[in-house]
Amino acid sequence: MSETPATPATQGAPRPAGGSGGTLNDFRRRGGALYRATEIDGRLLGLMIALAVAWIGFDIASRIWGQGGDSIFGGSFLTPRNLFNLSVQTASVAVMATGMVLIIVSRNIDLSVGSMLGFLAMVMGIFQKEVLPEFVGFDNQFTWLLTLAVGLGMGALIGTFQGALVAYIGIPAFIVTLGGMLVWRGGAFLLASGRTIAPLDENFSRVGGGTEGSLGRLGMDLGIGSDTLSWLIGIGVVLVLIGLVILARRRRQAFDFPTRPIWAELLILVGGSALVLAAVATVNAYSWPVRVAARYAEANGITVPEGGLILSTGIAYPVLIMVGVTAVMTWLARRRQFGRYVFAIGGNPEAAELSGINVRRTVMLTFTLIGVLVAISAAITSGRLDAATNALGQWNELFVIAAAVIGGTSFAGGIGTVPGAILGALFMQTLQSGMVLIGFDTAQQNIVVGIVLVVAVGVDTAYRRRTAS
Amino acid sequence: MTAEETPGVQDTAPETGGPAPAPSEPARSDSIDREGRPLVEMRNIRVAFGGVHAVDDVSIDLYPGEVVGLVGGNGAGKSTLMKALSGAHPPDSGEILVNGQPAVIHNPRQAKRYNIETIYQTLALADNQDAPANMFLGRELKTRFGNLDDAAMEAATREVVARLNPNFTNFKTPVQSLSGGQRQAVAIARAVHFNAKILIMDEPTAALGPAETAQVRDLIKQLEKEGIGIFLISHDIHDVFDLSHRIAVMYHGKIVGVVKKDDVTPDDVLGMIIMGKSLEEVSAEERAKLH
Fold this sequence. Notes:
The complex is a heterodimer. By secondary structure, chain A is an all-alpha fold. Chain A contains 19 helices and no strands. The radius of gyration of chain A is 24 Å and the shape is globular. Chain A starts with about 20 loop residues before the first helix and ends with a helix. The longest helix of chain A has 27 residues, at about 145-170. Chain A is about 70% helix and about 0% strand. By secondary structure, chain B is α/β, with parallel strands linked by helices. Chain B is built from nine helices and ten strands. In chain B, strand 9 (about 245-250) and strand 10 form a beta hairpin. The longest helix of chain B is centred in the last third of the chain and has 16 residues, at about 210-225. Chain B is globular, with a radius of gyration of 20 Å. The N and C termini of chain B lie far apart (about 70 Å). Chains A and B meet through helix 10, helix 13, helix 14 and helix 15 of A and helix 2 and helix 4 of B.
């Protein structure tokens, strides 16, 4: 590991304790020890720092060039409202990016996810509005579930088909999915003859978030208060984190392997828990729009206190889905044979084949998986818009690939992480909404995002070269 | 599949069909018992790439505890012949018998069922993965929930690798950052751990320094004592002479001669490699030259 600070030869000599001359070196040395002891992925840490810088930067910038707001820096970025929206806007791309990681890790690419999203959204739109009502009528309480099942199945089917062309026929993934990009976009148009399907089933559109599609509303409906469920989820995640750390530690101790120092484990747990709980506090601090709250109070016979009814929006469903998908995909990538094989194929396809791995099936399954994930994102995106249009998901393939790559996935194959892709997606969305707040138009936004993508990969490449030596 | 089971010893492996041939008492000189049943018989193997016969009607056998050196120039067909046995490139025609029973080997997975393990020239490691992941690649240990049991795999790897290379400590770093000898240790550990009965070593010392080469030589001698049959492909005629009991010389896809090491000198074998003729023909030509 080369992050050890260069130690001059003279440092070998004993130095006076607490000498002021070496403060910086001292700091770097301790930082290095901290970094090593916690075994934090340097790339992820760097991305989190970049995110923090971007958030604070945009907040200050929005005060100077934008309308400003009531955040701690007087801007409009670090407000509960903006952060809630950011989390919802990130979800769709983030969900697909977790699958794109495995695709790129195994040295393939999927350019069709944006068009597939449009097609699947249209399939689900037509199914719930024009097919299903013939059998179960409108506003059936299971409409959304049946629609989702059809969408997920269709996504798996399309993904498997494209994956089979790549894995068994041997057509390059770039070509197969380039074709898919055209086919599914055209298919979305033909399916509805260019119409927009709207509005969607009420329950289905909750998958897309908003006041209705968040835990605050569910808590109110259940009569347990608007902020309770979000806190329960937050605490649940923290408990799971603690459990995982303890289990991993016990397992290593059982084999007498070296373990991380206790303080390093605690540091990770406290830091991780603080982040989770801060996120919950933020979305709980975002209250329902006054009119929506008033209408809800009226409909449910709640007396509105003086100063208006303040209800927490809480965690949005798409964000819950994103968290769930992240957990499952991380588990698949790190703890399952399938994930191990995907990474092995990316590291050395020949070795994987010689080791007896069924390379073709594994590659095909990565495409099946992304098909399912695209279906989830299609539900989120169309639900959020409350409509299925044939332009839905346009350019998404580029954002998804960019999110994976910014998150540290290497096009050379074999390297990438699921949490990295989530952070990458969050970073992309941060740039976009930040630039909207400071008044950049689309052309300017595209230029910035393009430059950031190239710079991010440049920094990552340099980092990798440095740590490899 | 639980952690205790060793994949490969069950299934279709026909070796349990009869009494295993008693491994002969190994010694420095050739004391291999070739009266019994051979561990492997390859009969009339042919492999063609396009119109070129990379391996042309080759037959060869291997006995328990025996090391058979395969030598020949570049493109003589040594590696291709061994790929037919390891399942990496199935033969176009011909027959392979393991312990006297016809074996079906169409891919590496099937070869492993017959306890045929291969150490490739390129080592065939996933460079981005750590040593335990590589050692168990394709045969991962799992917990009872079906998750990867990384701790158990690391423990097993530590145990096996420690026998091969006591200085090995990097169990959590990707193998691309390891030295050639350490990578070799991982590749060999894989074969040892999974109870190889038939081991194919393709240039096992090509990437190694002198000390590491010596380690591999010791290991080969240790393995043959355990009754494992080894096919050794090497360019290094001294390696081959030091380690092999018999030497098969290949030339343009054919075996031109199989000689017992004790009956020949390195120069004899070199003559066979270069001229592509059997020992008798080479000797005759040499005699002719002398006259």
